[in-house]
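User: Predict structure, ligand alpha-D-ribofuranose.
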Amino acid sequence: MINKTNILVIGSINMDMVLQTKYVPKEGESTLGKEINYIPGGKGANQAVAVSRLDANVTLVGRVGTDNWGDMLINNLTENKVDISGVFKDEESATGIAVILLEENGANRIIVYPGANSGVSFEDIDRLLNKGCKYDAVLLQLEIPLDTVCYIIEKARKLNIPVILDAGPAQVIPLDKFKGVTIISPNETEAEKLTGIEINNIEDIVKASEIILKETEAKYVVMKLGERGSLIRDNSGYKFIKAFKVSPVDTTAAGDSFTAALTIKYCQGNSIEEAVTYASAVGAITATRFGAQPSLPYHYEVIDFLKGVR
Ligand code: RIB
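Assistant: Predicted complex:
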């Protein structure tokens, strides 16, 4: 029997409040929404569920409140075969919430109230990493405190565990905080915030990737560029990987699932190009479906998708 890849995901767990609207109103304008749905989300939880559906073992470290939403989100993680031994119920804070405005064309705007996610602490990490469990990679995003993120990077580096950092949500953070990551994966907006470069064209993308590589000393920078595909940058240069053409319904969690898939394939010893191609397929399928976690594909669906487009 082949041993499954073991991934440790550390990150946010949110209830997504998704309001569908024809268009997002202008300042001072009111409009009627079409539908409202409450859907399990949060970048950390989305990545944990994605990893599980893509056939790897996954343990999640994160926090929810002691409210009903916290219970619902934990149940959903368990149903998706995520090991929740690192998920704590925080008595002091409410479960994180993301308010998502979803337009008819699939574009979204998200505001996150972090709640319990702000409490993810060094101790939460130590409880898991000191247990002596073996992980093939640690997967992180930026919806938990930055100090905790930096602590994890340092700790994983000492333990010789590769760290994959999904640089969302977009924030201005000095790039040298991320020294020690193996792969850093921002989208365009995140790259703009991290580098201060306004991205308008391919040259800007290339320049931003160069700065991120240099300042983080990562092995790879993988930029998620939506319809433009992805850019892989390492010390030998850069390469674009084409996007799969799909009609997006809701892009929520497409970036999350991309990075989760990239992490698994990278850990399994595939080339970075193969890993990014598989990740692009996963992100593309996610964008064709509604909601965060309900939209995440299973490995067999990705295989079928790749057969169909080749
Ligand atoms: O990346 C999408 C996620 O961002 C949503 O599920 C929302 O909860 C926010 O964390």
